[in-house]
Specification:
Elements (H helix, E strand, L loop, with lengths): L12 H39 L2 E4 L14 E5 L11 E5 L7 E11 L5 E6 L10 E2 L3 E9 L2 H8 L5 H37 L26 H23 L4
Antiparallel strand pairs: 1-2, 2-7, 3-4, 3-7, 4-5, 5-6
Length: 250
């Protein structure tokens, strides 16, 4: 009887290596995709809600190279007295209209009534803008993210609350699937290791049967159980933030 004829023959090392590499690649791709989704959700939805800020999309090149078109800028309200030279502010062109501009403060002054005013200019412009009154200022840019402005424009500034809740629910479901799959894999490997340690019957007295060695395991780049729990935790926080933001304000 040859090794190939044995029913309990150990798979070839090349086959084990191929499967291990495939699992490693799949785990890595899954982890990177999950991280990308979490980063986008945090930058676009969760962090602005926690800060009480508003995301905007840069549409023109007046703030190049700092804020090129397609940049996501998150603006947080700040008292006019705390705005200083060099701050990048977002302000309304006209009251009660949605159109806004995001430019840098290059001068600070005041009206005859004592109201604070600001002189702004785009980094790529040669001329100053018209003076901006404090009541026009929507806030100061606290952070900006490349390319996410396109996604923000597609979603819309006034995102419905169900969108955040739907994304969080989908992430929770995905996390639970990861946890279940990781626990199932652990149980399968444990049973396989126990079966491998049991002595196999010797078919012929003249042959010495060597029990197959337990299959080698390659450490995966991510633990599905841990990743699933992290996804669930982040999603629960997102749901809590969504509920707080949708609550009536006094």
């Amino acid at each position: 009887m040859t090794t190939a004829d044995r029913p309990d023959a150990v798979p070839a090392p090349a086959a084990r290596t191929t499967r291990s590499v495939a699992r490693w690649v799949g785990g890595t791709v899954s982890t990177l995709a999950l991280l990308a989704v979490v980063v986008v959700a945090l930058a676009l939805i969760v962090v602005p809600l926690l800060l009480g800020a508003t995301p905007y999309t840069v549409l023109t090149g007046s703030m190049r190279p700092t804020l090129p078109p397609g940049e996501l800028v998150v603006t947080r309200p700040r008292p006019a007295a705390d705005i200083t030279l060099g701050d990048v502010i977002t302000y309304q062109l006209r009251s009660n209209e949605p159109e806004v501009v995001t430019h840098r403060v290059v001068g600070v002054g005041s009206t005859s009534e004592g109201e604070r005013t600001f002189i702004t200019r785009g980094d790529a412009n040669n001329l100053d803008d018209d003076p901006v009154r404090a009541v026009q200022v929507r806030g100061v840019v606290v952070y900006h993210v490349p390319y996410l402005g396109h996604l923000n424009s597609w979603v819309g500034v006034n995102r419905p609350g169900w969108l955040l809740k739907g994304v969080a629910a989908a992430l929770i479901l995905y996390g639970l699937v990861l946890v279940g799959g990781g626990l199932r894999d652990r149980l399968t490997r444990r049973h396989a290791a126990l079966d491998a340690t049991e002595p196999a019957p010797v078919p012929e007295p003249v042959l010495v049967h060597v029990a197959p060695a337990p299959p080698r395991t390659v450490r995966r780049p991510n633990d599905p159980v841990v990743v699933g729990l992290v996804v669930c935790a982040v999603s629960v926080v997102a749901l809590a933030v969504a509920r707080r933001s949708s609550a009536p304000r006094r």
